[in-house]
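Final paragraph of the annual report: two paired records, presented back to back.
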Amino acid sequence: MSLTLYFHPLSSFCHKALIALYENGTPFKPQLVNFMDPDENAAFKALWPIRKFPLLRDDATGQTIPESSIVIEHLDNNYPGKTPLIPKDPAQALETRLRDRLCDLYLHLPMQKVVGDKLRPDGVRDPHGVEEAKSQIETSLGILDELMAKRTWIAGEVFTMADCAAAPPLFYIDMVVAPIGDRHKNVAAYLRRLKERPSYARVLEEAQPYMHMVPR
């Protein structure tokens, strides 16, 4: 087995990569990394000094690949399956990459800001930064709600990398920030479709034993 994914089951960006792997049944070795363990932390830092998940090691190509979007592009190019995650049509591919970037930058990162702040001890929290992040999330959900009134998946009528990017932040926003269905009905329906997708349902099932660690 040439692929190893270094990850943590609660990491939202790891969810994104795992969805892509499970969507196409791509064989890989899951390597859970515990940053609280000094040896595991040091070993991972030697592979990728930035110390961010996910990280894909491909022994067949000799590459160590960071960043969830690049991991999925690598999988789509080298290990294609029944679900092409990047459309072949250039215009559709550009739409997919645009929605992927919008989800990562304007949903994923502000969601992580809110969740991360809840994990900080009293006295070092950033209420102003959290309010800015929540405002960004709300603006992005409004854009997405209008978009999803007219399509099944975020880049059109086929499941793509952009849906892999959308699922994790929407899941955590709904659970930790505020219930999406109270404000954005189209996004809430989209999130239900994402959670029912077998690839993401599997990711969530495997993360369930760790969910008690997520701040509410």
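The closing record of the year follows.
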Amino acid sequence: MAIGLLVLFGVCFGSFLNVLIYRLPLGQNVAFPSSHCLACNTPLRWYHNVPLFSWLALRGRCSTCKSPISVQYPLVELGAGLLFFAVALQEEGLTEKVILGILFSLLLALSVIDFRHKAVPDSLSFPALGLAFFSGNVAASFEHGLMFAGGAALLRMFVSTLVKKEAMGEADIIIAAIIGAVLGVALGLLAVYIAALLALTAFFLLKKREVELPFIPFLASGLLLAYLFQIPLIGLMEAIYG
């Protein structure tokens, strides 16, 4: 029952994230105007705003003008619900489940925004960092977060000087701090390594298309994978390093 309620909350939170994903990069108010069709501006009724089910019932089209509704909406809602489900299975305390569920959902939103706009709003990334500091032992999370932020900042300066252009964004440093705060040093470094591997793989696969790849989705994926599989990963590191 508790897990089901958390998943339901996650799906509803994902619906709110869709509003943030669309409006924050455009500098729009997240509350006004109320939800409306982006094509014909018709205000949506409450039954058009039921997460997941409304999109399915409308078959992905506006009830008024029949314009297509992006599949991003149900995917983000479903993704947030699955993230809450995964965290609920991983954590014991309700507080940790809620904090980490919201945190990973915010990272999902940041990943979508970064993929679409190649930049993310501070109004979303800083709250995510604040949650990360309270995801476990506050003192340790704060220390490890600052450590990873400092390391990412130094790496940014070094690589930018080497290639003579900006190599990383400031938001990447914030996500690195989140990784350190949530995972600690050993798993945090492993998460960054996983992120780098995913990014390099995507780069080589899409190299001929000259696609500009944002890094935040890969950092968030590395964090999530290291978090979900931390027990076998810790066992593997102990086996390797004794």
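Residues 125-242 form one domain. This concludes the annual technical report; the extension proposal builds directly on these records.
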